[in-house]
Amino acid sequence: MRPLLCPGAGIFPLRLLRGQAHHPRFPYAGPHTVRFPHTVPISIGVGARPRDHAGAPPVPTPTESAGPDAAPVGAQLPGAWNDREAQVSFGMSPGTDCPLAVFDARVGLNDLSVSLVPLGSGPDIQSFLETDIRIPHTSVSYDSGADALVLRLENTVLETGDPAEAAGNDDWVFDFIGEHGLRYPHSFPMGSIGEDNRFFERAAISTDGTDTTITLRLTGKAMSYRVESGSLDGEGMLPYFRILFSEEPA
Questions:
Q1: How many CA atoms lie within 13 A of 230 on its CB side?
Q2: What is the mean pLDDT of each run of 10 residues along the chain (250 residues)?
Q3: CA separation for the pair 118, 85 (Å, rounded)
Q4: Quick check: 200 and 219 in contact, CB under 8 A?
């Protein structure tokens, strides 16, 4: 699905997050409707997303294409469509010392969404707060032998660690966690992520203890993809990215 650019003020149909009466960043304008006060690029999603395990936060719809962590790194323009075999990267600069953990990953009707949190130690949370881009450096490559898209998330693991057990954690760490409603410790299981959709099958996630790899076996309908990112909470404390697929060539 191509993005919808909403020029000026207007009312447009929009599916809100599960359990929300209104979207936190846009004024309420009626059931399942928001009013956009200025021009903003929006991608509209349709349908419900399967939940892979209990306790995970909702994946946002719409996805904002603006913000400090929205623009892919390198030659890729924000929201650019890429050929299914294209190799791209996005997120932090390679080698950035800001370790993250996958909080949730799930399969949607035409996408895969991944949300992230900082690890549970004071230095890691401080690094997270000091960086402008809160999406890990992620490289996307095509495995021709498996006909699969492979995402490698640098300096990203599947367990946050327990702040109560981290050496040297000051009171501000626990105040910060409580203030933002973050849940620690948290772990995301390795293996299958969720159900197949018409664009990819056998979505799987694994980690080597330093980086995390996500593999999507493509179907014949996946002709192009794009990457979007934003934050679940509007404050940047729960960053996410999602990779969307289309049947149309890039």
A1: 20
A2: 40 41 45 40 34 40 36 48 96 96 97 96 95 96 97 98 89 92 94 95 98 98 96 89 96
A3: 31
A4: yes
Expressed in angstroms, the distance from the first to the final Cα of the chain is 12
Number of separate domains in the chain: 1
Q: Which domain holds residue 216?
A: 65-246
In angstroms, the CA 143 to CA 146 distance is: 6
The C-alpha atoms of residue 116 and residue 203 are separated, in whole angstroms, by 18
pTM above 0.85, yes or no: no
Residue 12 in any domain: the answer is: no
Bridging pattern class, strands 100-107 and 156-157: parallel
Q: What b-and-e string marks burial along 87-97, b requiring 16 or more CB atoms within 10 Å of the CB?
A: ebbbbbeeeee
Q: How many CB atoms lie within 10 A of CB 19?
A: 6
Residue 81, domain member (yes or no)? yes
DSSP 57: P
Tokens of 78: 């924000």
227 near 151, Cβ under 8 Å? no
pLDDT at 145: 96
Residue 126 covered by a domain: yes
Residue 135 lies in a domain: yes
> By CB neighbour count within 10 A (0-12 exposed, 13-18 middle, 19+ buried), where does 171 fall?
exposed
Q: Are 133 and 78 in contact (CB under 8 A)?
A: no
What is the b/e burial string over 189-219, where b = at least 16 CB atoms within 10 angstroms of the residue's CB?
A: eeeebbeebebbeebebebeeebbebbbbbe
**Eight-state DSSP code of residue 129:** H
